[in-house]
Structures are given as structure tokens and as C-alpha cells.
Amino acid sequence: MKTRMIVPALLSAAMLSAPVLAAGTDKAGHATPTMERAAAVNSAERCTALQKQFDAVIKKHEKAKKKAEEAETMRRDGGKLCAAGNSDQGIAKLETALKHIGVKPKA
Hints:
There is one protein chain. By secondary structure, the chain is an all-alpha fold. The protein has helices at 2-22, 33-57, 65-83, 87-100. It is globular.
């Protein structure tokens, strides 16, 4: 009895979701410029959020001077990468800087 209800429900959901899933792609299945712009904005926002998080917590870690200096260098490099449009590399560098001083990245 349950199978008779579940199978049609799953098939209906799959058929109704196909147009929604395809909305962000062209006929060849490539991401549309709108999706690419949205990803770039999200990456830029993530870069900014990670930079702000680092700047807020680094002051607490200045006692471990060497580690803080290394992390600050990573943060500068990550900020430069983000500013140059290399968001993925910048985000990775900023996350590494935060982890280097024992802070979990929030953004």
C-alpha cells in the first residue's frame, strides 16, 4: 500500500523539479551568465566576510607573535588574491590563515 503511494509521489516530484533544475543552464547544460555572476558575488562576499573575521580575531593572538605574523601574511595574500578576482584561491588562503591561529572560518 505504501509503495503504491510513494512511487507516484517520487515520480511526480522528479518531473516537476526538472524545469527548475534546468533553469540556470542553457540548452547544452552550461551555466548561464546569471549563475556565474551570482557565484562571483557569493565568492566576493565570502572573501570579505573571511577578511573581517580574521581582522577581528588576530588581535587576540598577538602573544603567539610568530604564528600571528605568519597568519597575517596569509591573510594579506588571500586579500590580494580576492581583489585580483581569484576568489577561490583567496578564500582558501584566508581559511588557512584563520585555521593557523586556531579559529574556525565562519563564512
